[in-house]
Amino acid sequence: MIRHVLLGDPPLWWSCCGEAARVDPGWLSGSRCAELRDWLNATAPDSGAGSVGSVDHPLLLARALAAPAGRVSEHDPGVWELTTAWERSGLLCADAAPGPFRPSGSGLAGLSPRLANSLSSMLDLIQQTAGAGLAAKGVLTIAALMLAGVEPRGQRAVRVAVVFARSSGTATVDAPASDPQGPQGVTGVLELREFPAGPPGLYPDPRTMDGVRSPNGEFAAALGHAWRFAGERRCVLWRVVLSDGQVAPARLEGPSLGLAFALGLRELMRNRRPGRPGFGGLRRLFRGLRPRTAVTGALDGSEHLVRIGDLEAKLLAARRGGLRLVVPEADRLDVVKAPEPGDVRFARTVRQADRYARRYRMGRLAVALALVAVGSTGTGVAVHEHGNSARQHAEARSRQLAAQAALLDQSQPDVAKQLRIAAFRTAPTVEAFDALTTGVRLPGTIAAPGVLHVAVSNALLAVVADGRVRLWRRSEHRFAAMPAVSGRSPTGLRRAAGSAPSRAPSPRA
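Above: the chain's sequence. Below: its structure in token form.
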């Protein structure tokens, strides 16, 4: 329990060492730090077989980071010991670490000048360490950045449910067949997260995966297959956590995590870098991985899946946890032989397994559709209100022009006539139409540009520019019911019918 609190998630011991390197470097070389380290090693011994324990890993790096820039080389033995430990862990694959093994520069702007100089000297020391692979140097580069305060904040993790086979008190991906007790299944989660500041590649999270070992090269080969399948030059951190204890397994064996890595990387790479929105982000938002679907399967170097071992124990663990399990098609016969296989889906390729492992997030879809509906309604209301406002403004302007025409009717009749026409063109209000027909005393016609009026005793039949026909009662100063009209207007008025008087007018332009 103590080990989980101090070295689990969040890793309090890592945070303590990093804060000391940034704020109080003297504490790392003092007696209080040595006492706490000894107490941790005695109270919560490291179950891993590495030469450097989980307690010493961040402490050695923090001491090198806290040293003055000119004295960082004094910590070369500790850095060499750490790179050797990671090289022997079996969790690294050269194919999944393409390099270059230098930080990208992201997140370094907030470092103090002292810390930036020390970090630069330490990274040079890591690159110059002899006898270690490039992937191990990449992990130490990431660990140094994290201790300096550069963390993957704001980077959302991708989680894929997985199943393990537990043997001899340890959890492994594929337990050895020689175990007399037989393997027992246990569920877990593979978590992948982008770390923009780190070098390109697929690396274990040094804060939680330190001390985990893989005794053969099958697991590392699975990492290489999955990373080639992803095909992106970005820094991705991964960790595996058991569901029953929320800690990392002590040992990882076999290639059956290859499918989980491939699906997780596909999901992660669908997102563009921060600040670059794209369709992949929307697709992930509404169609993501099922949290209750676990996957297990090995890759053959391409998209096809190959057979795995210890399937009966994994089926039992998935059924006990209420999980759907996606397995390779090559294991169908083993599933049929299982006493209680549970909910199983068979896949031949990574693409097919990806379809089984996904679902539409109906809650998010419903919320998005509701927001779209509300936004559309709001836009329609705004457009309608804008149209009403423009029409009211035009009608008010039309009334003003009609009133001015009435004032100038005696003194300037020509100007008044133009104002009447302008008033009617602005908006065909009652006032505008009344002003336009004020001068009509006898039946006949009035010709105005864009407006055609036909005077018929007490009624005026008007055809405006848009083709609408209006019937105006001169004595009542109002529009009457619109008569039935056929034909085109105003350029081609053919016929007007309705309650016509005895004498039909002949319209003229």
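The chain has four domains: 1-150, 152-360, 362-438, 440-509.
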